[in-house]
C-alpha cells in the first residue's frame, strides 16, 4: 500500500512541471549553550513529505516522481551517544524512496541530479544559508556545461506549492489532530482543577504549578511536548497577549487564562480557556466572559465551507462591539451604535487580534489568507488590524481546512473604563475543522460554558 507520504510526494511532483526538481531540507539542529542542544524538531515541509524526523537530511524530488533522500549514515559510535540512525540503505524500503545516500555526499551527488533539469524548486525563506548552498550546487552544474550538462534556468519557491497542499488536511492528519485536541483538553481540565484544589487547601498556587500540570498531561497522553510555549496568565497578566513569565501567584478572585496545546506526531493543538481560580466567576468577570463566549458562538456559526476566512472575525467583532457599548466599556454618547464602533475601530482598545489562524503541523500554519486569483475590485477592503488596503478577496473556506476560533477581550485601566472590569483578560479558543455544513470543533472536551466550568472546578 502506498504511504500517505508517498502520495503527497506524487502530488507535489505532478506540480513541478516538466523538467522540474525540488530540494526540501529538514531543519538544522540548534545549540542551546555549551555542549547542549535544544530538543530537535524537524522541518514541517520535509516531514509532510517523508515522515522522517532525523536531523541532517534532505529530500530531492523530480517531476517524474522519483525521490532521493540524503540522510545521516549509519555510525555505531555516534549511535551510542545520540541514538539510532535509520541510514540510507534502510531509508529506501522504510520510507519508500527510490534512492538514498549519505548526507556527507550531498555536495557531490545533488549537482548531478540537477543536471538537465529546467527548473529547481526550493524553500526560499525558511532555511538560513540555503540560497547560497543552492547557488553552489548550480555553479557545479554550470562548470560541466562543456561536458554537455544543462543547468536549470528557472527557480521557484516550493513553499507556494506545499502551502496549498498543507492547507487542506487529509484523513490521516485530521485523525492525529483530533487526538491532539483530546490530549490538550484533558491537560486544561487538569490545570483548572489543580488551581481550585490548591486554593481551597490554602496552598501557595503559582502559574508554574498549572503549567506543570499541562506538560504532565501532554506527555502522559503520548505527545512529544508543547506545540508552542504555554501561556499561563493569572489576574492582570491575562491582558498580556503573549505572556511568558509564568511565575506570578494565582490568587482567589483572579481569572486565569491558559493558552496551551500539545504537539502530537508533528501536529499542533491550540486551546485557550479562561476560568476563575477559585471556581466561581464574579459578576463583572461573568459578564465579560459571556460576551466573549457569545462572540465565539457567532464566529463558529460563520465557519463553514463557502464562507470566507474573514467572516468569523467579522461576526466576532459585531458581537463584541455591541457588548462593549452595553457594558459601558465604550461610551454610547461617543459611539452611537456598534457600526460606529466598528467603523472607527474603537473596539481595538479591548480586542486587538484576529479571531483565528490556520492550524496544522505548525501552530500558525502555512497557507494564504486571501484568494490568489485575479484582483477583485469589488473585494477591496481596509484591513481591520493594519489599516492597509487589501485588493484580494479573503480566502474561501473549504472542507478540510483547520482554523482556530479565538475571540477575546482585554481590559487595561484607562479613563472612562468602569473600574469593575479593570485587569480582566479573557480569551476562548477552539480548533475547528471546516465542513460542508459548518465546522467540527475538535477541542470541546474541555468545558466552555461558565456554569460548566464552575461545576468542573467543584469536582
TrEMBL record:
One of its GO terms (cellular component) is cytosol. GO terms for molecular function: manganese ion binding; metalloaminopeptidase activity. GO terms for biological process: proteolysis. Residues 1-131 form the Aminopeptidase P N-terminal domain. Its cofactor is Mn(2+). The keyword Protease applies. InterPro entries: Aminopep_P_N, Creatin/AminoP/Spt16_N, Creatinase/aminopeptidase-like, Pept_M24, Peptidase_M24B_aminopep-P_CS, X-Pro_dipept-like. SMART domains: AMP_N. It catalyses: Release of any N-terminal amino acid, including proline, that is linked to proline, even from a dipeptide or tripeptide. The keyword Chloroplast does not apply. Its EC number is 3.4.11.9. Keywords: Hydrolase, Manganese, Metal-binding, Metalloprotease, Protease. Gene3D superfamilies: Creatinase/methionine aminopeptidase superfamily (3.90.230.10), Creatinase/prolidase N-terminal domain (3.40.350.10). Belongs to the peptidase M24B family. This is Xaa-Pro aminopeptidase.
Amino acid at each position: 500500500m502506498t504511504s500517505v507520504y508517498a502520495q503527497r510526494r506524487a502530488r507535489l511532483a505532478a506540480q513541478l512541471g516538466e523538467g522540474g526538481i525540488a530540494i526540501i531540507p529538514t531543519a538544522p539542529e540548534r545549540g542551546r549553550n555549551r555542549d547542549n542542544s535544544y530538543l530537535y524538531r524537524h522541518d514541517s515541509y520535509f516531514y509532510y513529505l517523508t515522515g522522517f524526523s532525523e536531523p541532517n537530511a534532505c529530500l530531492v524530488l523530480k517531476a517524474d516522481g522519483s525521490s532521493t533522500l540524503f540522510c545521516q549514515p549509519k555510525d555505531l559510535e555516534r549511535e551510542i551517544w545520540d541514538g539510532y540512525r535509520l541510514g540510507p540503505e534502510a531509508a529506501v524500503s522504510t520510507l519508500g524512496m527510490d534512492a538514498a545516500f549519505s548526507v556527507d555526499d550531498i555536495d557531490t551527488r545533488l549537482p548531478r541530479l540537477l543536471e538537465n533539469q529546467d527548473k529547481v524548486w526550493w524553500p526560499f525563506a525558511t532555511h538560513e544559508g540555503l540560497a547560497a548552498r543552492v547557488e553552489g550546487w548550480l555553479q557545479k552544474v554550470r562548470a560541466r556545461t562543456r561536458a554537455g550538462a544543462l543547468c536549470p534556468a528557472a527557480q521557484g519557491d516550493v513553499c507556494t506549492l506545499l502551502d496549498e497542499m498543507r492547507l487542506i488536511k487529509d484523513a490521516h492528519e485530521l485523525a492525529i489532530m483530533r487526538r491532539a485536541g483530546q490530549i490538550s483538553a484533558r491537560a486544561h481540565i487538569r490545570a483548572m482543577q489543580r488551581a481550585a484544589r490548591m486554593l481551597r487547601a490554602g496552598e501557595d498556587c503559582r502559574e508554574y504549578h498549572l503549567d506543570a500540570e499541562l506538560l504532565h498531561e501532554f506527555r502522559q497522553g503520548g505527545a512529544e511536548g508543547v506545540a508552542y510555549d504555554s501561556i499561563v496568565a493569572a489576574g492582570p497578566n491575562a491582558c498580556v497577549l503573549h505572556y511568558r513569565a509564568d511565575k506570578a501567584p494565582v490568587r482567589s478572585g483572579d481569572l486565569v487564562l491558559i493558552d496551551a496545546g500539545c504537539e502530537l506526531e508533528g501536529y499542533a493543538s491550540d486551546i485557550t480557556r479562561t476560568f476563575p481560580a477559585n471556581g466561581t466567576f464574579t459578576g463583572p468577570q461573568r459578564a465579560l466572559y459571556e460576551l466573549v463566549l457569545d462572540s465565539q458562538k457567532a464566529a463558529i456559526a460563520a465557519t463553514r465551507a463557502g464562507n470566507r476566512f474573514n467572516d468569523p472575525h467579522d461576526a466576532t467583532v459585531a458581537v463584541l462591539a455591541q457588548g462593549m457599548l452595553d457594558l459601558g466599556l465604550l461610551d454610547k454618547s461617543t459611539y452611537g451604535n456598534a457600526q460606529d464602533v466598528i467603523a472607527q475601530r474603537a473596539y481595538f482598545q479591548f480586542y486587538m487580534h484576529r479571531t483565528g489562524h490556520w492550524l496544522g503541523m505548525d501552530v500558525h500554519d502555512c497557507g494564504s489568507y486571501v484568494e490568489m486569483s485575479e484582483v477583485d475590485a469589488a473585494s477591496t477592503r481596509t484591513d481591520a488590524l493594519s489599516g492597509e488596503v487589501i485588493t484580494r478577496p479573503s480566502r474561501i473556506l473549504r472542507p478540510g481546512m483547520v482554523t482556530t476560533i479565538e475571540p477575546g477581550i482585554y481590559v487595561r485601566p484607562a479613563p472612562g473604563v468602569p473600574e469593575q472590569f479593570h485587569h480582566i483578560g479573557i480569551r476562548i479558543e477552539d480548533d475547528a475543522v471546516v465542513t460542508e455544513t459548518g465546522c467540527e470543533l475538535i477541542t470541546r472536551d474541555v468545558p466552555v460554558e461558565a456554569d460548566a466550568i464552575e461545576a468542573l472546578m467543584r469536582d
